[in-house]
Amino acid sequence: MTLFELTFGLTALILGLALTHIASNLYRLAKAGRKVRWAPEPLLQTGVVLLVVVFVWVNQWQTRGTTSIIYARELLQVLKLLVLYMAAAACLPELHDREGEIDLYVHYDQTRRLSYGALIAGLVLFDIYGWTGEQTFHWRWNMLASFVFIGPYLVMMFVRQRWLKVLLLVAVLIYFGSSIMAYRLNG
What we know:
Elements: H1 3-32, E1 36-37, H2 40-59, H3 71-91, E2 102-103, H4 104-131, H5 144-158, H6 162-180
Parallel strand pairs: 1-2
Helix pairs in contact: 1-2, 1-3, 2-3, 2-4, 2-6, 3-4, 4-5, 5-6
């Protein structure tokens, strides 16, 4: 077993659970039918988180040449993925068979600080993880990309105007989606 296989196994487990959580909750919502009062915000947010989870998973291939691991850095890896899992878990409500009507906007409004806070914490942890790599700490231009997302996430945490949240979510989906769709890995 290579070091990449060892560390990727844990990555796959955490990110796989995040995807399973999203799929399971979406299935239960669809199955609940008329009991669900749908809203665009949690669905758009789920789309953003889905793109991030799959991108992070695929991007792990970049570490396939790992020849040594540092426990502290691997712990940081797990923390950043767990924060991403929390964002995934907060997107959609968990349903139970005996529940009455489910309002997705109410769930979104109650969990928005947790979910966007987790996305912000994830961005910060991903940057810290990058700083602890082969190179020593220094300001890099690509770190500014995090601020492109932190701003909208902060606004969506605290602003109550639904039109603004929908607009920002659509903008984040378009910007992030268009920036990763051409992403290519070579084996």
